[in-house]
Write a structure and sequence with these properties.
Blueprint: E1 15-18, E2 26-29, E3 36-37, E4 42-51, E5 54-60, E6 71-74, H1 81-93, E7 96-108, E8 113-123, E9 132-138, H2 150-160
């Protein structure tokens, strides 16, 4: 559940109430019926970025050394998913998206997110934002997806390229997308 405690309309303490259509689901709601927190999943955009035939993977500043993944970010108001992923790529890597193709849509229930994943061909010189510490350019056959979230998108893209998919062991909450030899 979320961190909401008070109704934004009347400031009453929210109560946990069974959903009218499904008594097994509970939602935070105003006791006077002014407001309900639906706690819907957030749309997250992800990009498997290709530059000069190699795939760009980046390490977030909050991650341990050796952990790399796709470029991701939240969609903003008044932009399409394609505009959003192009913006995220530009903000995080300084690259310009030249071709954007949907890979698929994936659930990520652990974080209450819905991932919209794209394969993006990009151009330019890589310059990382402070959000990212380092990057790797990986040959497509060397990608190693994991069995969760964006890992499924990488696997789907690899299958479409007729590349063999070898999932890495899922150790903890995050596994790198690259083989130990690439680190």
């Amino acid at each position: 559940m979320s961190e909401f405690k008070f109704c934004p309309v009347c400031a009453a303490n929210l109560v946990l109430r069974a959903d009218d259509d499904d008594a097994r689901k509970f939602r935070l709601a105003c006791p006077d019926g002014h407001w309900t927190h639906w706690d819907n999943p957030l749309p997250v955009l992800a990009a498997l970025v290709e530059i000069d035939g190699k795939m760009l993977l980046a390490r977030n500043a909050a991650w341990a050394e050796g952990r790399f993944a796709l470029i991701t970010g939240f969609m903003e108001r008044d932009e399409t998913p394609e505009q959003g992923i192009a913006r995220e790529i530009r903000e995080e890597t300084n690259l310009e998206a030249s071709e954007i193709n949907l890979i698929g849509v994936y659930e990520f229930m652990r974080k209450n997110e819905l991932i919209i994943a794209y394969h993006v061909k990009a151009t330019g010189s890589i310059r990382l934002s402070p959000e990212l510490l380092e990057y790797r350019l990986v040959e497509p056959p060397d990608l190693r997806p994991w069995p969760a979230g964006t890992g499924y998108a990488v696997a789907d893209w690899m299958r479409r390229q007729n590349l063999p998919v070898q999932f890495v062991e899922f150790a903890g909450s995050f596994t790198p997308l690259i083989t130990p030899a690439q680190q």
